[in-house]
């Protein structure tokens, strides 16, 4: 039997970046839990090069064909458009719910992480821009540790819940805050939005949600530049959540 040339360590976080990179479909994410290599592997090393958790070792690097592009490989355009539309009118921030709910539905219904490996425009964007701008250093080990990923998810969800609480307060009559909060600390005035035709709580959610989306983009860009292009995929709260859902579903 042919020996697999790439091997995956227990550090795998099932982000699916390697699946996208492999032109031979020799690697897959098993039930949304961890990556596995088949004997189609020829040892080109593309998966090891892209893996943000540094979880792949390849015995022998050999040349391999270029991966064929699919329509879903261009979803990064949607991510760029989303960011741009927010500057045009903050109410477009509501569209971001699609990016948040789709991976959850796919994990709950399908029990897999196909959103991460195929349809995540943000991850694609980091991969694309990072191929030019990233320093491509090994990401620090703590980023892929369970405690860090769980703590970051808890922190992220707590901040999200606080954001929702401010929406409830505005619904109850509190004043609308026309600011975008970046990195959960820095308030950026955003007074040019046309909001007169919607209830104030709808606008408040848009401000809060757009700030959350921009914050994750800033974090992703920072780790993209410092480490591997898709380092954000290791600690992305949606990725951690969908991996947890897949584990629960399959256990
Ligand atoms: S962490 Fe991601 S890129 Fe690395 S082996 Fe696991 S699924 Fe593949
Ligand atoms: S080494 Fe190359 S062929 Fe083997 S799994 Fe990784 S990307 Fe695919």
Enumerate how many helices there are, as a single number. 10
Q: Measure the end-to-end span.
A: 30 Å
Residues in β-strands, percent: 5-15%
Widest beta sheet: strand line-up: 1-4
How many individual β-strands?
6
User: Which stretches of 5+ consecutive residues score pLDDT under 50?
Assistant: none
* Shape verdict: elongated
Main beta sheet: strand number and arrangement? 2 strands, antiparallel
The set of bound ligands, ions and cofactors reads: iron/sulfur cluster
| Order of helical and strand elements | EHEEHEHHHHHEEHHH
Radius of gyration: 19 Å
Helical residues, percent: 40-55%
Estimate the mean pLDDT confidence: 92
The domain count comes to 2
Quickly give the structural class: mainly alpha
